[in-house]
Amino acid sequence: MGVRVFRFLFLLLAGLLAGAVLALGYLAYAYTRDLPDLSQFDRLRLTATSTLYARDGTPLAQIASVEEGRAIHRNLVRLSEVSPAAVAAVVFSEDRRYFQHYGVDFVRLLGALYAILRGDLQGGSTITTQVIKNTLLKELAQARSLERKFKEWALALELERRYTKEEILEMYLNVVPWGGNAVGIKGAAEAYFGKDPAALTLAEGLYLASLIPAPNARYQDLKGVRERMRLLLDQMVAEGWVSPEVAEAAWREPLVPKGWEARYDGEGNLLEARLVDPEARILRQLDYRMAPHFVLEVRRFLEARFGKEKVYGEGGLKVYTTLDPAMQRAAEAAAKGARLPEGAELAIVGLDPETGEVLALVGGVRREGDEYNRATRALRNPGSAVKPFVYATAFEEGWTQATLVPDRPLEFPDPSQKGGVWRPKNFSGTFLNREITVRYALDLSLNLPAIYTAQAIGVEKVARKLSQAGFAVKYPTLAIAIGGASITPVDLAAAYAAFVNGGYRVTPIYVKRVEDAQGQVLYQALPERRRLFDPLVAYQGWDLLKGYVYDLGEKGLAKGARIPGRVVGGKTGTTNEARDLWFAGVTRGLSAVVWVGRDDNKPLRMGGREPSSSVVNPPIWREFVAGALRGRPGGDFPPPAGLVQVGIDLLSGQPSQGGIKAWFPQGKVPVPALRAPPSEGAGSLQETPPAGAEPTDYPPGSNEEAFPAPPPGQ
């Protein structure tokens, strides 16, 4: 009887076991008959963080890729780019028999099957199966199911057949999630320790390895992670992975992940730990080290050039920008120290006048996280900063710096003005009531001579020239001669470059080169230069700009822009009611602009009064340019062939040995003779007697700047 019962129980148990095996076999067949094709690994696209570099190769910013609407911090690395200590720590913690098994560790698998029978579907994972889980089976990654396990095991065996252990380990290090938005060991090294994975120590590697099973929970438990690290170190010593001395040195390393404050004793014991900033490990979608507005402009360029899907859905770009860190620091220091009118914003831009490469850029100073880039987006009236282009256009028509222009009240029909007549004025409401040289007219920043010049040579010609220079000209009216067009700070810097680079308007460049993750060049910038002036005309314009800075000594409106040891040229600009203040200047190595104004375009006030650009902007410009070019060559620009330097009387334009030195084309050198003013042009422009002059409001964008009396004897 007992034998029969035993036999029955044996057969029943054998049947149950066979049934279980058959059931598992059927499940295995059912779950693995429709597996993803491993050839997908050859074309598997992993999103990655894009890195922006300054011109000296230092990292400038990171643009996170996006997966499922969430910013992901991941950069793909080669196995050789990770410190061996960190690799050893991860392998030992996650799969210490990794180099002995063939994708499935049967020792761990038996443990996993035992756990399954107990209702726990954890366990049995290897590095190979985790690669499968985080790539081909990503949709099942969070599911605790037999389906996922069977598929993982089957795919792991095939993965081991197709790839080497080193290749699979490299895949794993690039796909494993490390908590927060860090994916892959490069993202983890930066997120938790702010370093490259090649620089990770054994202690840091063990910390990261200890996070892997539950990174978000374990990140908040530094004490618990330290206990796990101690256990791993002891096991590594016991199994011969490291020496006792190496293990002890790793234990005594004072490990402080980002966001934590921690204190240790000399034996490596954690005395105190406090999580002070849980968000410290999170990479923002746009994370910059400096120059936030410049970085935003680069991001806009990348989106426009490659599309958002490439930038955020794939990423991994290496973007080499034009930014000079030393110049940027100088710009930020100048912006920080600037004395600004109430409620005013500021923009600073400096670019290479030869290539257009933007070397420094500040797009605003008042608000943290402000994404409005005034250097590239603030389209404003330039005031008198436009006048050098008016006079340079006149030089193309045969005028010179000694050509005489009237500073008398002028009027012409304008239906938009009261009485149907526009009577432009100088800032003071007064005038010299005589002809003066073009150079002196610019030195004093007079409006009436500039308007006269535009009328005499043809306002249509001036409008075309300004459009070519980058100004937005709505209507070709005489108002454009004193600031009635619009331009952004960066475009004004690009236009002013023409005065010192032989006459070319340069296109601003922010990105020099873009590479993909494999190092393939996707974009290579080429300088874009468009002829604006003849070289002789351009140099005469440069000479005018120098005159504006130096001619009138301490009475000069741009005296605050002078830099010892450098030759500087430039022009201020102040618009109606001081809504916009400008200084645009050039010197060897830099074309730079400082703009000051309010975002709401309200009039500026400083101490209850209207400020002038001649007071506010040149000191900021000087602070920036002096710092940006410190230690770099100075000196003047050499004149092109065909120009002659002659001393002239600044007021009359007559030759004068003790006068101002100015450059003239050969054949147009002033001679000691009476000079008639150039044709005053036909049409509506009229001179009116001083007694009848009553200054009226300016048209939009016209200049209001004080000017001194003529220097004695000139």
From TrEMBL:
<dbReference type="InterPro" id="IPR036950">
    <property type="entry name" value="PBP_transglycosylase"/>
</dbReference>
<keyword id="KW-1133">Transmembrane helix</keyword>
<dbReference type="InterPro" id="IPR001264">
    <property type="entry name" value="Glyco_trans_51"/>
</dbReference>
<dbReference type="Pfam" id="PF00912">
    <property type="entry name" value="Transgly"/>
</dbReference>
<keyword id="KW-0121">Carboxypeptidase</keyword>
<dbReference type="Pfam" id="PF00905">
    <property type="entry name" value="Transpeptidase"/>
</dbReference>
<keyword id="KW-0645">Protease</keyword>
<keyword id="KW-0472">Membrane</keyword>
<keyword id="KW-0328">Glycosyltransferase</keyword>
<dbReference type="InterPro" id="IPR001460">
    <property type="entry name" value="PCN-bd_Tpept"/>
</dbReference>
<feature type="domain" description="Penicillin-binding protein transpeptidase">
    <location>
        <begin position="347"/>
        <end position="588"/>
    </location>
</feature>
<keyword id="KW-0511">Multifunctional enzyme</keyword>
<dbReference type="InterPro" id="IPR050396">
    <property type="entry name" value="Glycosyltr_51/Transpeptidase"/>
</dbReference>
<keyword id="KW-0961">Cell wall biogenesis/degradation</keyword>
<keyword id="KW-0378">Hydrolase</keyword>
<keyword id="KW-0808">Transferase</keyword>
<keyword id="KW-0133">Cell shape</keyword>
<feature type="region of interest" description="Disordered">
    <location>
        <begin position="669"/>
        <end position="714"/>
    </location>
</feature>
<dbReference type="InterPro" id="IPR023346">
    <property type="entry name" value="Lysozyme-like_dom_sf"/>
</dbReference>
<dbReference type="InterPro" id="IPR012338">
    <property type="entry name" value="Beta-lactam/transpept-like"/>
</dbReference>
<keyword id="KW-0812">Transmembrane</keyword>
<feature type="domain" description="Glycosyl transferase family 51">
    <location>
        <begin position="70"/>
        <end position="236"/>
    </location>
</feature>
<keyword id="KW-0573">Peptidoglycan synthesis</keyword>
<protein>
    <recommendedName>
        <fullName>peptidoglycan glycosyltransferase</fullName>
        <ecNumber>2.4.99.28</ecNumber>
    </recommendedName>
</protein>
